[in-house]
Amino acid sequence: MKSHLERELKMRADAGFNLPEMPGEPLPNRVFTSTYHDTADRALAAAGITLRHRVESGEGAWQLKLPHDDGRLELEVPGPAAAVPAELAALLVAHTRGRKVEAVAALRTNRSGVLVRDGSLAVAEVTTDAVEVIDGRRVVRAFEELEIELVDGDEQALRQIEQQLRDAGARDGDDRPKLFQALDLPREQPAHDDAHTPAGRVRASLAGQRAAMLMHDPGVRLGRDIEDLHRMRVSVRRMRALLRAARPMLDRRWADRLRNQLGWLGTALGPARDFDVLIGHLQSEAAALDGDDQAAFAPVLERLEADRDWARARMLDALRSERYLKLLEKLDRAVAEPRIVKPDIAAEGFARKEHARLARRIAALDDPPPDEQLHAARIAVKRARYAAELLGEDSRELRTYVTAARALQDVLGAHQDACVAEQRLRELAPAFAATATHIACGRVIERERRRRLRQRAAFPDAWRTLAAAANAAFV
Fold it and tell me: What percent of the chain has pLDDT over 90?
């Protein structure tokens, strides 16, 4: 399976537009036909996912485009149009859920353009696409697109080329994927009319986090970018925090049952994500060791990577389970019809109560607090932050509070990561016979101890900053 991160900007030009002179060389003209596939209810399109079979010069390939923070991740598997390749279909389970995937539109594209260069560096492809929406031999619609797709260039290069095209007469384009334009689909779902009411904010927040979870699900299954797992896990945690904070407004039994199911999913995602964090940090720490210690520490990293593979396999089992699919259906219903029984309760009270719970927990800390108490405090900070974010950060005071909560969360998170790293290394070290490995582990453990002490020293000031922000935000 080939993969490519697509970073592009769509523009539009009127009839008679000519590309300005740019350094580089003309691209060969291409003609290809793309047959787009989706479920009957357009579940893939609603998630910003494109699945198509493309035929060019007699050769066919399936292409899947997934939303990505830096653009769109394009995956390609050569093959005939008869059936979606299993490796691509497996990435879409959370969106298709057993529904038939079928052809929904066919587009014929005539592409021409130029490869822009900066010396020997291939910066971007600037292309003009003449697109025809076809039904058999009949053309039912036609449109043109002007695209800048980065090759080895950066954001600055993209903006420079954009300005050149604007100077030549190009203007803002339709940033929807071609399928969306062919079917005249909106890029985003329309906002609820009650989005500014307390109940509407709860509904909108739940819908947003569910959408984020589904967006990252294919990437988690693919396993090429650890940020997908991180973002999916965060969305699950945010939904649980929302259901907890908004309890006074909700049918409590319904909310608690949904929180429990989300807790199961969070537990399934957690170990693999924890290994990602641990391995990434220890790789950085190992890089600071001298050559001999690095070599001696390498088997420890290899063992952790094997453990991560095991945790990932367990996680994928959960994502393939019937229980997960049922949870997705419950979330669909929760977003469509959340059980809000007291819609007029002020949402500001949610954040105020969560901060009050946090303040009580901080006040009850021992002196000095054990590691377990600081870990619990970190969870409480996260809940308070998520509850505040539910309000939409409308005021400067609330934005200051959220920023301070994030800073305290980072302090306590780094402290917890240091505790976990030290504990894990102490558990692993005896499994290795080499004395050099024990010594290398000891050196990394000492670095983790120092990191833990730094975070403990930073904790009081970070808490005072958050407490002051709360006094201003929750008057």
Answer: 77
Interval 385-396 mean pLDDT: 77
Q: CB of 74 within 8 A of CB of 64?
A: yes
| Statement: residue 391 has pLDDT above 80 | no
Domains along the chain with CATH numbers = 2-183 (2.40.320.10), 198-473 (1.40.20.10)
Is the separation of the CB atoms in 440 and 289 below 8 Å?
A: yes
Which of 138-142, 394-398, 410-414 has maximum average pLDDT? 410-414
pLDDT score, position 198: 74
Mean pLDDT estimate for the chain: 92
d(CA 419, CA 82): 53
Give the whole-angstrom CA distance, residue 119 versus residue 345: 62
Query: What is the pLDDT at residue 194?
Result: 60
Please classify residue 81 by burial: count the beta carbons closer than 10 Å to its beta carbon, then call 0-12 exposed, 13-18 middle and 19+ buried: middle
If one counts every other C-beta atom within 10 angstroms of the C-beta of residue 257, the result is 13
Query: Residue 337 CB: number of other CB atoms within 10 A?
Result: 9
The confidence score (pLDDT) of residue 372 equals 96
